[in-house]
C-alpha cells in the first residue's frame, strides 16, 4: 500500500511540474500548435485510409461504401511473382546503399574535420553539400548526358583511351544500373550526412582533445579514441533510421534513373506502387502494399533499436 501511495505522489508531482512548466513557458508551447496541427492533419488523419487495403475500393462508393474483402489484396500481392522481384530489388539496393554510403560519409566527415585550412575546409563542405539541393530530375538528366553513348563524357574518355572499341549504352544495361544508382546516390547524399556528423563533432568537449595531446596521442589516435566514441550515439541513431528505411529506397532516384530496359534490376516497391496506383488506378492494392511496407519498417526500427539498447542504453532512440 505504501508503494502505491508513493507512486501516486510521484505521478501527481510530475503532473504538477509539467503543468507549471507549461504555464511558465506557454509562448513556446503556443509555437508548437501550428506544427502539431500540420502533423495531425497530414500524418495521422490520412491513416483512416488504411482500411482501403481491406476493401474493394470504388471511388464512386467511397471508402465506407466499398465492399469489405479482408486480406484478398494481400493474397494477390504475395501470389504475384513481380512483387517478389521488386521486393528483392528494394532490399538489395537499400542494403548496398547502406553498406557503401554509411561508412564513407563517416570517414569523409572525419577527414573534413581534420583539415587545418579553414577556407579550404569550407570550400570542401560547400562542394559536397551542394548536390543535396539538386532535384533528382536534374541529377537524372545529368547522369543520362554523362553516360550518353553518342556524346557522353564517360564513353568519350573510354573510347579515346582504347579501353572500349565502341560506346556502351550504360543506361539500358541491366547490370550497370546498380553501380550507377549507388554512385549517384552517394554523390548526392554524402554532403547532408557530413553536416550532421560535423555538427556532432563540434559539440565534443575540447578538453578531451587537450588531455589526449598531453598524454601523447597523435592525430589518428585522437580521432580513434576521442572523436569516434563521442560520435557513437549520432552514428547509432542514423544507423537505426537507415535500417528502418530498408524497405523504401526512394521513388525519385529510381524513377529518374531507370527505364523499361532495366526493370528486372531497377524496379522497386516505390515505382511498382506508382504504376499500379497512378497508372492502373488500383488504389486498394497499392494501399495494401504500402501498409505491408510500413509494418516491416516499424519492425525493423524496433529491432534495430533493441540491438542498440543491448549494446548501450544511451544509443537507443525509443
Describe the protein in words:
This protein has 15 helices and two strands. The longest helix is centred in the first third of the chain and has 33 residues. With 318 residues, the chain is mainly alpha-helical. It has two domains: 70 residues, no CATH class; 241 residues, Orthogonal Bundle (MetI-like fold). Helices cover 73% and strands 2% of the residues.
Specify the CATH class of the largest domain.
Mainly Alpha
Query: Roughly how many Å apart are the termini?
Result: 32 Å
Binned, the helix content reads over 70%
By CATH, the superfamily of the largest domain comes out as: MetI-like
CATH architecture of the largest domain: Orthogonal Bundle
What would you call the structural class?
Answer: mainly alpha
Strand tally: 2
Characterize this entry briefly.
This protein has 318 residues and is mainly alpha-helical. The protein has helices at 2-24, 26-44, 62-65, 72-78, 81-113, 118-129, 136-146, 153-160, 174-202, 206-214, 219-244, 251-257, 263-266, 269-279, 283-311; strands at 55-58, 66-68. It has 2 domains: 1-70, no CATH class; 75-315, MetI-like (MetI-like fold, Orthogonal Bundle).
Tag the structure with descriptive keywords.
318 residues; mainly alpha; MetI-like fold; two-stranded antiparallel ribbon; 2% strand; globular; Sugar ABC transporter permease; UgpAE/MalFG_permease; transmembrane; membrane; transmembrane helix
Amino acid at each position: 500500500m505504501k508503494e502505491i501511495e508513493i507512486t501516486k505522489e510521484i505521478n501527481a508531482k510530475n503532473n504538477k511540474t509539467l503543468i507549471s512548466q507549461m504555464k511558465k513557458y506557454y509562448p513556446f508551447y503556443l509555437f508548437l500548435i501550428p506544427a502539431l496541427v500540420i502533423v495531425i492533419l497530414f500524418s495521422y488523419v490520412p491513416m483512416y485510409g488504411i482500411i482501403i487495403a481491406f476493401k474493394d475500393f470504388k471511388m464512386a462508393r467511397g471508402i465506407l461504401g466499398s465492399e469489405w474483402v479482408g486480406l484478398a489484396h494481400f493474397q494477390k500481392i504475395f501470389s504475384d511473382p513481380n512483387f517478389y522481384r521488386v521486393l528483392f530489388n528494394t532490399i538489395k539496393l537499400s542494403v548496398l546503399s547502406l553498406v557503401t554510403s554509411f561508412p564513407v560519409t563517416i570517414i569523409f566527415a572525419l577527414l573534413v574535420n581534420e583539415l587545418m585550412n579553414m577556407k579550404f575546409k569550407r570550400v570542401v563542405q560547400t562542394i559536397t553539400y551542394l548536390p543535396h539541393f539538386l532535384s533528382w530530375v536534374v541529377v537524372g538528366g545529368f547522369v543520362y548526358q554523362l553516360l550518353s553513348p553518342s556524346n557522353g563524357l564517360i564513353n568519350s574518355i573510354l573510347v579515346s583511351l582504347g579501353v572500349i572499341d565502341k560506346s556502351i549504352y550504360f543506361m539500358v544495361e541491366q547490370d550497370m544500373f546498380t553501380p550507377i544508382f549507388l554512385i549517384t546516390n552517394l554523390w548526392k547524399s554524402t554532403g547532408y550526412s557530413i553536416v550532421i556528423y560535423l555538427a556532432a563533432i563540434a559539440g565534443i568537449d575540447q578538453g578531451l582533445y587537450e588531455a589526449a595531446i598531453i598524454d601523447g596521442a597523435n592525430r589518428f589516435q585522437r580521432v580513434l579514441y576521442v572523436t569516434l566514441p563521442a560520435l557513437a550515439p549520432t552514428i547509432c541513431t542514423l544507423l537505426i533510421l537507415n535500417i528502418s528505411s530498408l524497405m523504401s529506397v526512394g521513388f525519385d532516384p529510381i524513377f529518374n534513373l531507370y527505364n523499361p530496359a532495366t526493370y528486372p534490376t531497377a524496379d522497386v516497391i516505390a515505382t511498382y506502387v506508382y504504376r499500379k496506383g497512378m497508372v492502373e488506378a488500383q488504389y486498394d492494392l497499392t494501399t495494401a502494399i504500402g501498409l505491408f511496407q510500413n509494418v516491416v519498417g516499424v519492425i525493423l526500427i524496433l529491432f534495430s533499436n533493441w540491438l542498440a539498447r543491448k549494446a548501450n542504453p544511451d544509443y537507443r532512440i525509443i
